[in-house]
């Protein structure tokens, strides 16, 4: 169970399909010996796309799962878990 | 008002004093014409120190302020504000 | 033209195929309503994979294209271009 | 020895003095129990400042030290060292 509604799922799936296509595009660029800098810029675009996906999921998780847990007096556990994620994603 | 107790404040202040000293150290390294790579590695260490400070404050904020707000039915506003911060700190 | 040899191309293509599979895996996780935190951890793994790909290409680019350009007295242009990439990838 | 001219040194020292002041500002904010989110935003500003400093030094290093080394047939060693730095600073 997560906190994504049908609309979120549709939006995220569309984004991820685009990202999947971009990853395949990188494989093609490598195969066709495109210029390194162009490949790197394209990878940067993928990372930007993934960041958007993760921020969306993060947002829904905190508004949904975390709020529910806090109201059920189980906030501290879910927040510790959340901080683990934040640590990984923090620059 | 924030969610830092006296112990947190002491720990964070100590960390920040160290970071302040490291920033002064970089100025000295530049003045003494130290090798670029050594300066860059030192800046990286400072960034690591700042990340630890921000994760600590973030953790206390979510466990404290955010939980309190959720219990007072003001969760959505404080979580939107939180997501703004997360976006800035996310790689 | 880039600085990737056949061996690099093979290694990078393998990595990217794995990443492509992982991106499809995220779509499945969303479809199957897996837990947000598990999805986020999986996205973090993809970002780690992409970082490895970009560091490899970056490394080959500097050892190859950049060195060649410097020896042909065209170093400054290619380094300005490189710095543009570094800025995007820097946390 | 590094690749920073007097003008660079002056600019970087000014930036670092400002950053040092901002780090002291964070200590004050903690002491005065300012709101967590305001402290986090201020830390984010410091990290932005440090990124600018490191990009400047990186740029000068590649245009200067690295180009010189490449012309003296010592490019590969200095580029390996550079990649070590890039890896640390890459998100």
Describe the structure.
Four copies of one chain form a homotetramer. Chain A has 91 residues and is mostly helical. Chain A has a single domain (6-89), classed as Up-down Bundle (Methane Monooxygenase Hydroxylase, Chain G, domain 1), CATH 1.20.58. Helix content of chain A is 85%, strand content 0%. The first copy, chain A, is built from three helices and no strands. Chain A has helices spanning 6-31, 36-71, 75-89. In chain A, α1 runs antiparallel to α2 and α2 packs antiparallel against α3 (75-89). The longest helix of chain A has 36 residues, at 36-71. Chain A is elongated. The two termini of chain A are 29 Å apart. The mean pLDDT of chain A is 96. Chains A and C meet through α1, α2 and α3 of A and α1, α2 and α3 of C.
């Amino acid at each position: 169970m997560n906190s994504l509604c049908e609309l979120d799922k549709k939006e995220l799936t569309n984004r991820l399909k685009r990202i999947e296509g971009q990853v395949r595009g990188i494989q093609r660029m490598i195969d066709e010996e495109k210029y390194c800098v162009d490949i790197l810029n394209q990878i940067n675009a993928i990372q930007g796309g993934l960041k958007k996906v993760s921020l969306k999921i993060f947002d829904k998780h905190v508004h949904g799962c975390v709020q529910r847990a806090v109201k059920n007096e189980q906030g501290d556990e879910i927040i510790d878990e959340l901080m683990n994620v934040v640590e990984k994603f923090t620059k």
